Amino acid sequence: MFELLTGDLYRFQDLLTPEDAEVVTRVRTFLEAEVVPVANDHWARAEFPFPLVKGFADLGIAGARHSNLLSGWIALEMARADASMATFFGVHSGLAMGSIETCGSAEQQERWLPRMRTFEKIGAFALTEPTGGSDVAAGLRTTARRDGDRWILNGKKRWIGNGTFADLIVVWARDVADDQVKGFVVHQDNPGFAATKIENKIALRTVQNADITLTECEVPEADRLQNARSFKDTAKVLRQTRSGVAWEAVGVMLAAYEIALKYAKEREQFGRPIGGFQLVQDLLVRMLGNVTGAMGMCVRLAQLQDAGEFRDEHSALAKAYTTTRMREVVGWARELLAGNGIVLDYDIGRFVADAEALYSYEGTREINTMIVGRAVTGLSAFV
């Protein structure tokens, strides 16, 4: 039986088909049984739980052709359990596999995607650079130079999720011949490739983010994504994954609300549960309002995607709105738990920290605001 989430007051889950509900139940069962019990430990040690990869593979959902509503709900469930593992899955299935599916030739898709679906090969996505995040479209500095039947890549990438252990890293570089951004699939053993783990993070600590250095890195022409001809093709991938981050933000909100509600019912002060106090109920209702509004936006976004009526501003507004509301919810939940909210024992501290990363990646609030602003005014505010 499909169990409704505590925070789904408007029963958005009822919009899932029975078949999709079965997939969600399977994913939720795996996450609650295998991921949640170890999430805090791996987060505290900043180590990746490699034994869980087989469980993700057994779910059979990586790169699957689901409806956008189901894909979004899967992202929600993963972030509700652990935003780090949601990021791991999103990078692999959304960014890396999405790049190959969107920009790769039929031969490249056949060569890589089947083994990525089974997690035999894990993917990463290398776009962001040490000096280029929001301005990476125009300011991308990593270069690609063709030399016969190979390409020579030079440059640096930063914040590359899965970058320390991924088998296939989709690297975006600017072709020195035509000044256009192109995509390349790079392997850990390519000559001139080096990845170093980023240490001392305060968010998504389980994610193995890497600094990547490409020094005369050799990539065969066969590993250049054949249909990635400019940054417009890169943007096609980002448009899809940005909506996934909006769903992840809802998952983080849901987790925070559920933690706070449970705590409010159990924690006693002045001789009774704090959930019976007006100010505590006010916090809970504000949280639930944010969850419901953000969930409704994501559901409608998925419907537009499934109907083929999806535009850049739709995902940009969803990402900007949901992550902003998420920040409020995790803050209110931490406030409700008081001192207990800053220790991992009560889980909420991890969600508070991880929310900061979701707020920034896949386009900051400011960048997504300008995408929406350009759409509604017809005027670009980009420099």
Query: Number of helix segments?
Result: 11
| Rg over alpha carbons | 21 Å
H/E order of the elements?
A: HHHHHEHEEEEEEHEEHHHH
- β-strand number: 9
Which residues form runs of ≥5 with pLDDT under 50? none
CATH structural class of the largest domain: Mainly Alpha
CATH topology description of the largest domain:
Butyryl-CoA Dehydrogenase, subunit A, domain 3
**In percent, how helical is the residue content?**
40-55%
Residue fraction in strands: 5-15%
Quick structural summary:
By secondary structure, the protein is an alpha+beta fold.
How would you describe what is shown here?
With about 375 residues, this protein is of the alpha+beta class. It folds into 3 domains: about 10-115, Acyl-CoA dehydrogenase/oxidase, N-terminal domain (Butyryl-Coa Dehydrogenase, subunit A, domain 1, Orthogonal Bundle); about 125-230, Butyryl-CoA Dehydrogenase, subunit A, domain 2 (Beta Barrel); about 230-375, Butyryl-CoA Dehydrogenase, subunit A, domain 3 (Up-down Bundle), CATH 1.20.140. It is built from 11 helices and 9 strands. β2 (about 145) and β3 (about 150-160) form a beta hairpin. α3 runs antiparallel to α4 (about 85-105) and α7 packs parallel to α9. The model has no long low-confidence stretch (mean pLDDT about 95).
